[in-house]
Specification:
The complex is a heterodimer of chains A (292) and B (288).
Chain A (H helix, E strand, L loop, with lengths): L25 H30 L15 H10 L1 H32 L5 H10 L9 H10 L6 H26 L2 H9 L4 H12 L1 H17 L2 H6 L8 H11 L4 H36 L1
Helix pairs in contact in A: 1-12, 2-12, 3-6, 3-9, 6-9, 6-12, 7-8, 9-12, 11-12
Chain B lengths: L2 H33 L2 E2 L9 E2 L3 H9 L1 H33 L5 H9 L6 H12 L23 H25 L4 H9 L4 H30 L2 H6 L11 H12 L2 H26 L6
Antiparallel strand pairs in B: 1-2
Classes of the chains: A mainly alpha (292), B mainly alpha (288).
């Protein structure tokens, strides 16, 4: 499966409409635009509602935020400590992204390019890990991190999140590696490149969509992880955004402006990342499912 | 390179993964099994020691919350998966059509997937709050849906649907894109209408994707505790406590690791049994 899957118009639509010039067809409006519009309302109203609370002055009940105020953002960023939570979340997210991506490229390459003993066992183990509940690993992982002296350190979150990100990332990545034809790599090796140099010069550049999909997947998961951060970190200067937000929900339940502003801070990075990489993700899943 | 060294390459490549999974997934599962046979409570270290099957006896005979959480877990997973399948399939079919602004529409309808469970809680608290929430536009300005045992279930189901449908739709959209277009052309030439093409081309090809998506999401909804932990805390009166949520509460709040591990083992066994049963019943991956 190649990258043009995403851009090719769906065959079913060809006799009905061409992109850019939809035919006037009442059936199509009923079938397509009405349900899509309804679903968009269901998706977007909650986001809008959060923005309204975050931007309008305290005490207002207007469904339109006017006049706009940024006082709630000042409260959460400076007074509640979201500046620190945000920094911690970025550290954990970026580290987990880097480690996950590097290890996933190695594992994905091994799965896609080598037939070795234990390969299918390795695949089965990766799939089985999807059944392991994070909530139920809290107790043993807490004991391990306590032994390692990582309780209250961001290191525990980087390790735990990376481990839980890895299996799916490797499966996705092996799909992307398989999509790069082996012949190009072979040609480079014939020209005297070592396998590593051939990989770095030939394969890695073509893996760009895979790196983006896997990296963003890891970042979003890590950014959002709540239970590990709640369990392994109890000092406020090591809180991540989800933990900070959960305390805002608990303690400031009367101050909806602060809650909403904290929510916007939590949502902004991941929603932006997602909007940009969404198409790579869909493609990555179909590639992984086909080749995996 | 010698043959020996070349043979070692794939093992070197997967060794970090194997080491991490062994240390932080396999070993912990073993230690859960061990703890479940121990009395171990961080707040009462003097009472720690071998417990035999005492934790399991307590769970099966004395713990009403355990039995109630099992029932609610089943209700929660079945409701979420059923509704996510219907809505996710509809959404995937819609955004698989060609229309102006499709990329933007996809980004928008899929975006709640990127949002955390805690943030979902924050947003839906704002929506559900009596007085200033959105229910006043539906003629129910003073309804406290989260505090009322009769309305709390639909309220949490809708909040989780908002976040859960997008990923279901993404998985099914990936499946839809794997269906060869010639099949639709052939069916259209044979005079098959839209409904028959859906029934005889789309559904059979999507079958494995649907089985996989429902299984993955089922396991995920079973395990997912962030939303319920923060939105209802399992309440009111523990009517929305799932088994993993109960475990998390035991681990985080009461630090009763021995008993929590026994509950974890029960969860593992149930999840494994249901997954295998589901794969058997759905005859996943078999040619028909």
């Amino acid at each position: 499966m190649s990258a043009d899957v995403m851009t090719r118009p769906h065959p079913r639509a060809v006799p009905e409409a061409r992109p850019g010039r939809p035919r006037r067809d009442p059936g199509r409006v009923l079938r397509l635009y009405v349900p899509l519009g309804m679903y968009l309302i269901f998706t977007l109203v909650p986001f809008y509602w959060m923005l309204v609370f975050a931007l309008r002055p305290a005490g207002s009940a207007d469904p339109v935020p006017w006049p706009i105020t940024f006082e709630h953002f000042q409260t959460v960023w400076n007074d509640i400590g979201y500046a620190v939570f945000f920094r911690n979340s970025v550290i954990v997210g970026v580290w987990s992204l880097l480690v996950t991506t590097v290890i996933a490229v190695m594992g994905g390459y091994a799965l896609a390019r080598y037939r070795f003993r234990g390969r299918s066992l390795f695949m089965v183990v990766l799939l089985c890990t999807q059944f392991v509940p994070g909530a139920m690993m809290l107790i043993p992982l807490f004991s391990i991190f306590k032994t390692l002296g990582l309780i209250n350190s961001l290191g525990s979150l980087i390790v735990a999140d990376t481990v839980f990100n890895l299996p799916l990332s490797i499966i996705l990545m092996s799909g992307f590696v398989s999509a790069v034809p082996f012949t190009v790599e072979e040609a480079a090796m014939v020209d005297g490149c070592g396998r590593l140099r051939g990989f770095l010069a030939i394969v890695l550049p073509q893996l760009r969509p895979g790196l983006i999909a896997v990296g963003s997947f890891a970042f979003i998961h890590t950014w959002n992880n709540f239970l590990f951060a709640l369990m392994f970190v109890s000092r406020q200067d090591s809180f991540t955004i989800p933990v900070g937000l959960s305390y805002t929900i608990g303690e400031y339940s009367a101050d909806f402006g602060a809650l909403a502003a904290g929510g916007v801070v939590a949502a902004l990075p991941v929603v932006c990342v997602f909007a940009v990489v969404q198409r790579y993700l869909v493609h990555g899943i179909s590639a992984g499912a086909v080749k995996g | 390179m010698t043959t020996m060294r070349r043979r070692a390459v794939p093992y070197l490549l997967i060794s970090p993964t194997v080491a991490l999974i062994a240390a932080f997934l396999v070993y912990p599962i073993g230690s859960v099994a061990y703890y479940s046979l121990q009395h171990r409570n961080l707040t009462r270290p003097w009472a720690d020691g071998f417990a035999g099957l005492d934790n399991f006896r307590r769970m099966l005979t004395e713990d009403e919350v355990f039995w109630h959480s099992l029932g609610f877990t089943a209700k929660w997973v079945i409701a979420e998966i059923g509704l996510q399948l219907i809505l996710g399939l509809a959404l995937a079919l819609i955004v698989n059509e060609t229309f102006i602004g499709r990329g933007l529409a996809r980004s928008l309808v899929f975006s709640p997937w990127a949002v955390s469970g805690v943030l979902t809680t924050g947003i839906w608290i704002l929506l559900y709050t009596p007085g200033t929430g959105v229910l006043r536009f539906l003629g129910q300005p003073e309804a406290a849906v989260l505090g009322n045992p009769d309305t709390v279930f639909p309220a949490v189901v809708v909040a989780e649907l908002w976040r859960g449908v997008p990923f279901f739709a993404i998985l099914l959209l990936a499946g839809l894109q794997g269906i060869p277009g010639e099949l639709y052309e052939a069916a259209a030439v044979d005079g098959a209408g839209r409904l028959r093409r859906f029934r005889h081309v789309t559904l059979p090809h999507l079958r494995d994707a649907i089985v996989l998506a429902t299984l993955l999401r089922g396991v995920w909804e079973f395990n997912n505790v962030d939303l319920l932990y923060t939105l209802t805390g399992g309440g009111p009166a523990q009517v929305t406590t799932t088994l993993p949520l109960y475990v998390a509460q035991r681990a985080v709040d009461s630090k009763d690791f021995g008993y929590g591990s026994a509950l974890t083992m029960a969860g593992f066994v149930i999840l494994l049994f249901c997954s295998v049963l589901y794969l058997r019943l759905s005859r996943f991956g078999e040619d028909r």
